[in-house]
């Protein structure tokens, strides 16, 4: 009985030592804490002022390391050109009575990244997100709220994908 206890205590101690050493090494995935090290110091975003996506991207860039988001393209080291930003909703499936049962929501952004001399750092890039949503005509208001939340979730996901692509850019 005592050998069983001592073996259990030894295993538990070994597991604790292993976990402590892993947590103390400081390993962390790049961008896991919401911070990204951008390869440029300033950026101009060509989103319209009313764009929710542009506002969220500005906020994430300003909250990061040392990147300045400037209002004048001439003062920026890097230019983020929005070529198109579209949201879509299409029928995904119908029920036996021919009424809509599911919709497919899409959010697509096409952009490119240039330096202040006009050289392309990132060619035209398309990021497209899709989510399906069930529909019930007896719960129209609730489904509209769910649709808004799904678009907001896609917008946050889109910003994170943009940030990861910006970090991977190699300046000339």
Automatic annotation (TrEMBL):
One Pfam family of this chain: LptE
Cell compartment(s), UniProt: Cell outer membrane
Keywords: Cell outer membrane, Lipoprotein, Membrane, Palmitate, Signal
One annotated GO biological process: Gram-negative-bacterium-type cell outer membrane assembly
GO molecular function: lipopolysaccharide binding
Signal peptide region: 1-26
Main location: membrane
Membrane topology according to the record: Lipid-anchor
GO cellular component, as recorded: cell outer membrane; transporter complex
Subunit structure: Component of the lipopolysaccharide transport and assembly complex. Interacts with LptD.
HAMAP family: LPS_assembly_LptE
Name the record gives this protein: LPS-assembly lipoprotein LptE
Gene from which the chain derives: lptE
């Amino acid at each position: 009985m005592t050998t069983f206890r001592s073996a259990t205590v030894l295993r538990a101690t070994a597991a604790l030592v292993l976990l402590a050493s892993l947590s103390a090494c400081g390993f962390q995935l790049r961008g896991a804490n919401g911070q990204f090290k951008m390869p440029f110091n300033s950026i101009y975003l060509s989103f319209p002022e009313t764009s929710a996506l542009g506002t969220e991207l500005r906020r994430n860039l300003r909250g990061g390391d040392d990147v300045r988001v400037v209002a004048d393209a001439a003062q920026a080291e890097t230019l983020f050109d929005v070529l198109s930003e579209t949201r879509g909703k299409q029928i995904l499936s119908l029920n036996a009575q021919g009424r809509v049962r599911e919709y497919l929501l899409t959010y697509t952004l096409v952009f490119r990244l240039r330096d202040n001399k006009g050289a392309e750092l990132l060619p035209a890039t398309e990021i497209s997100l899709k989510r399906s949503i069930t529909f019930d005509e007896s719960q129209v208001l609730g489904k509209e709220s769910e649709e808004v939340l799904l678009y907001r979730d896609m917008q946050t996901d889109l910003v994170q994908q943009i940030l990861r692509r910006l970090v991977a850019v190699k300046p000339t």
